Amino acid sequence: MREPPRPAPERVHPMVTPIKSMKPTNVGDWRNQRPVFASRVAPCVSGCPAGEQIRDYIALALEGKLSEAWYKIKEDNPIPAVMGRVCYHPCETGCNRGELDEAVAIHCLERSIGDYGLKEGLRIEAGAAKEQKVAVLGSGPAGLSAAYQLARNGYGVTVYDAAAKPGGMLRYGIPAYRLPKEVLDAEIEGIAALGVEFVCGAKIGESVPWERLKGYSGVVVSAGCALGRKLKIAGADQAGILDGLSFLSRVNTESVAQSCRAANVLVIGGGNVAIDVGRVAKRLGAAKVTLAFLESQEGMPAHAEERTEALAEGLRFAPGRHFLEFEKRDGRLSGVRCVRINSFKLEQSQVVVDAVPGSEHVLEADTVVVAIGQSAELGFLPAAVREIWSKVASGEAVLSDRQWIVAAGDAVDGPSSVAKAIGGGKRAAAKLDASLQGRSVFSEERPTPVGFDSINQAYFARAGRNAPPAAIAAARIGGFGEVVGALAQEAFLAEARRCFHCGDCNFCGNCWIFCPEASIQKAGNSVGANGLARFEVDYQTCKGCGICRHECPRGAIVMKEEVQ
User: Fold this and answer.
1) How many CB atoms lie under 10 A from the CB of residue 89?
2) Which of 28, 64, 299, 558 is the most exposed place for a label (fewest CB within 10 A)?
3) What dihedral do alpha carbons 276, 180, 410, 349 form, nearest 10°?
4) Which domains occur in the chain, in start order?
């Protein structure tokens, strides 16, 4: 995406003519409340697990400052081109624009800005070099995030991973039709350019003894959840039954491809991994793909957009199934015996179902992939670290044998999202940095975000969401090409303009226009994220009428009680 022309800042032009030549009157002592410009938290920022400053980078992009927007994202997230493709955008759930028409397509904007940074070869510089060196165990999103933030702070960072290439689940768990590997490689190259060293094919406790890590001042454990859970029913160990992550990580092998060609594939599980498995099997030539799971179709844990895409590609759903036994025919796997259920619940890690009487049946299959969750494998940790793991996993930085230990990602939180792992890696890096430098960890407050009731709807026309282009289902199942494309330049700008810029002044001028006392003035030394000057209040002439607050489109002015 090329740098767009810089549009003029958004202005609101009410049908009034401001009179600014009148003589100001000192009426400040009439006031019992005063207007205050306040940069309040936008709901998108509050909802982002990675802590991205979404409002600010959209404002920069609207000013045509795509490089600055990229740098703004990179303060919190080292892989925006990846995140814009794979994140399930919880930031959009609370978007105030959704109360008017549709939420802003934030993930599409982030993707475009991330792609722009890669295309232009933008780079982040490392901070002043520190003496301490840090080891990061695992190169998934949490490990990449922690390594990136520590390198930005000047630490020498080495990332160890047992796999042949870095990326963790980004590389081995997310199919290429959602995340092209060249995009992931380019983002990792940017992290390596900070001086981060990646040592792959390194199994801690085996090829790399823990004692070799003693030379590091700190260790970040971000091992992820790479062990697929098994169904504890008869026949679960027979040939032809794979776990979801193993299937996805071995997509390019002949054995996996052969297991799918013209086959009847049954995927057990209703989450996002299960859907990825099913969509991959379809692309590998499966004749029929069925997803069977405990939940109802409406209650399945996979995201709604994933369900929609899967159905469009011809996958079938078999909801409300409880599995009893894997069956054989002529010595080979032939399917799984199951029963329909009305409901289920978990009691002491056991599934208790309300089965439908007489509903036993067999779901036939040539290949079965079990995708019912993952767990962490932490057996590589030495006994001394396992003893303190409960503290480390709860978020503490713990000193063990003169070495600080912190943890991040799925190894701590369980299987989660890329955005949450990125945020966890960033926080782990901050804790380790504070511990190594003898500082206390800053406690981040979570103020209440700006609500829709603070937005003056009179200043915003309805405008539908700009959808990115997507390949039609019939074409995309023939290969692993990217399904969802990028917004065109005009659509990108149109979508960015839909942002309310909740809770922060963007110099629209309404307060200056409507103030009856001419008390609003341009603030010479105060600028917003978009580089425009803000306003300030002359409290000698302000009588506290609140008109400025009422006319602010974005809730960037609050009224505070006057203290005598």
Assistant:
1) 23
2) 299
3) 0
4) 1-40+503-564 (3.30.70.20), 43-122+456-497 (1.10.1060.10), 133-226+376-436 (3.50.50.60), 228-373 (3.50.50.60)
